[in-house]
Amino acid sequence: MDTDVLVVGAGPTGLLLANELQLAGVDTLVLERLPQRTGQSKALNLQPRTAELLQLRGWLEPVLNRAVATVPGGHFCGLPLDYTVFDTAFPYQVGIPQARVEEFLEGRLAEHGVPVLRGHELADFAQDADGVTATVTGAGGHRRLRARYLIGADGGHSAVRKGLGVAFPGRDGRMSAVVADVVLEGPGAAGGEWRLPEFEPNENGVCFLLPLGDGLHRLVLGGPAQQGVERSAPVTEDEVSTGLRLHHGDAVRLRELRWGSRFTDASRQVERYRDGRVLLAGDAAHIHTPMGGQGLNLGVQDAFNLGWKLAAELHGWAPPGLLDSYHDERHPVGAMVLENTRAQGVLSLPDLDVLSLRGIFAELLATPEANRRIAGMISGLDIRYRMPGEPAHPLLGARLPGIELLGGRGLLLSAQGRPDLAGAVAPWSDRVDCTARDGGDGPSILVRPDGYVCWVGEGADGGLREALHRWFGAPARV
Predict the structure, then answer these.
(1) For 30, what's the count of Cα atoms within 13 Å in the CB-facing half-sphere?
(2) Does residue 436 register a pLDDT over 90?
(3) For site-directed labelling of 173, which of 89, 96, 185, 426 has its Cα 20 to 30 A away?
């Protein structure tokens, strides 16, 4: 074997997964077809749950050092959401260009000797009972690499997904829009603070400008002129200038178009996230309109769910079905994002009836119950995985905020510091840390390496050993 895991794609999903695998001591190699990072950033935010997950590993602070701003709350197609109703240290979005997240993640891999082979493209692969053989093209021609597992994190046009030939059901895009980074001039080009997007449409469609600093703005433009245009068609200065004039008059003018691309509201999700020794994550597994700012976060959270399970499989202690639980848990989460982004797409249509619908939605989202429901969905804070024993305790399957899992291992939190619980965990001490909580009379809690509660109880005879076997395999010692 050349490596344990071959990750195809050096975007946020692939780089985060490679970091998780490195943390778990798994030999990993990353392939990326681009010779260098472009510096372009389609995504600009981290949702609260993503910030919590980075904090679990001690990776949030260096990411925050690269951030531009924090943005209060979230939004549902531009309609504001309040995140302060949740028990989280991050009731906001972290405003950070995707390229800076990638810079940190790739830099950390370099520090730990994990290679990222840029300018290398997956040409073909075949899997067997023991691993995957990949044919890779690069400057030196063709080469073959052998890995125990192959991960497709190579975006919406994934070569890995296409190579598998798996179904990718959904629908093609029905509307098109432009995203671009532009330098502006004119009385309205001064910039300002980062803020929540505004997507209220009019007869000209939608035009939103977000200041990125140093005179640069992010532009989202969607109107009649953008419909029916091939996605591969270049974004032109004339197109951007016309759109700005329609929406802003003489307040702003285009000085420079740094880069631009097109996106649609296509919505698709692969039927299975795993096919033998090949797994899909991020946009390779699901595509959707960027409404709500969920895309990068969904992919990164795929990687957090998959990383420890794949490491367990490679280290030989994964219980039966653990790796398959990646699909079982993440497919419903992805399906929910596709559903809510389709709904947001409807609310962005330039139609008088849609404007009436937006008004009703705005009133509904101002109520505590509706805000909490939709804010939990967009932020990722409402994710709750199905666990044995439900609905025995409201924490079971939910996230546990405010903890750190710096080594990427599980954690037993005991309110009483009971020695019988510590003794029960001892045979799994290579996979689970045991700690006493300060004060409180609450139950003891077993937390998976991805920060989700997988057991709640009062003692070792309350199902703890069963939960340890289920999530952490056979004990290393008795």
Answers:
(1) 28
(2) no
(3) 96
